[in-house]
Amino acid sequence: MKVFLNTAYLEEDAALISPLSPGFMYGYGVFETIRVSGKQALFLDQHYTRMVRALSVLGMTCPYQETELQPIIEKLLELNGVSEGFVKVVCSKPTSKKQSHQEADILIQTGTKTYKEEYATGLKVCLADARRNEFSKIVTIKSMNYTENILEKEAAVQKGFDEALFLNTQGRVAEGCVSNVFLVKDGIVHTPSLHCGILEGTARARVIKKCAEFQIPVQEGVYGLEELLSADELFLTNALMDIMPVSLLEGKNFDIGAYQVVPQLRGNGR
């Protein structure tokens, strides 16, 4: 498989970034994982806007405009023969001594992971042991500091679950390791507000917009675990799985066959 590094398409083992760079040493950077369907990177505009905003928080800029990035991604997908899957864009701080608004190193890779069977079975979800720090300066950006998320997701899988949900320092629901969380109660869609310590997901934003289009009431607020457990429907979102029903939260089963709102939002139901 080939990757794109800064200015060139290279074989994976030929793509070298300095081990002394802040990106490698400290995880000083951001990334975006973008769904690919029909050989196209979906919603690239949303991902690019969020990436640029996150880079500004870290004092960096993207070396390419969105219009320049799109053909680079399309060529990489073609070179790797990827028509369904994902593309990942990583922007990290290089070794340059400059401290303010420097141009980031950029690495782009592709993959073929997709979600299919999971829509029929739903995901099994547990609580993460760690707490999400809603006061963190990087909690609202898709930072390369992702180890805690991976550790909690791996722990969840080892226990027989698919995903883990973080509570924040106040004991309120925040987000999943790789997802945003939604609940439906009495026909109203609810999701934790940005103040709860979450990443503002691109799929999350599309769900909120779609609810408005379908005239489904939606509220962003503060929720406890008990409100998730008493929900009529529970679902997760991210760029790759889009809208994914939850069939189990800790010890509580959900009958995803009886869901009404999730199939409507996914465009395949009642």
Key phrases:
alpha+beta, globular, D-amino Acid Aminotransferase, Chain A, domain 1, 270 residues, 8 helices, 9-stranded mixed β-sheet, D-amino Acid Aminotransferase, Chain A, domain 2, 6-stranded antiparallel β-sheet, 2 domains
Task: Detail the topology: elements first, then pairings.
Elements: E1 2-5, E2 8-11, H1 22-26, E3 29-37, E4 40-41, H2 44-57, E5 60-61, H3 66-80, E6 85-92, E7 102-103, E8 105-111, H4 118-121, E9 123-132, H5 147-158, E10 163-168, E11 173-176, E12 180-185, E13 188-192, H6 202-213, E14 218-221, H7 225-229, E15 233-238, E16 242-249, E17 252-253, H8 261-266
Parallel strand pairs: 5-7, 9-10, 9-16, 13-14
Antiparallel strand pairs: 1-2, 1-8, 3-4, 3-6, 6-8, 10-11, 12-13, 12-15, 15-16, 16-17
How would you describe what is shown here?
With 270 residues, this protein is of the alpha+beta class. The chain folds into 2 domains: 2-111, Aminotransferase class 4, branched-chain amino acid transferase, N-terminal domain (D-amino Acid Aminotransferase, Chain A, domain 1), CATH 3.30.470.10; 118-266, Alpha-Beta Barrel (D-amino Acid Aminotransferase, Chain A, domain 2), CATH 3.20.10.10. 27% of the residues lie in helices and 33% in strands. The strands form 3 sheets. Strands 9, 10, 11, 12, 13, 14, 15, 16 and 17 form a 9-stranded mixed sheet that branches. Strands 2-1-8-6-3-4 form a 6-stranded antiparallel sheet. α6 (202-213) links the parallel β13 (188-192) and β14 (218-221). It is globular, with a radius of gyration of 19 Å.
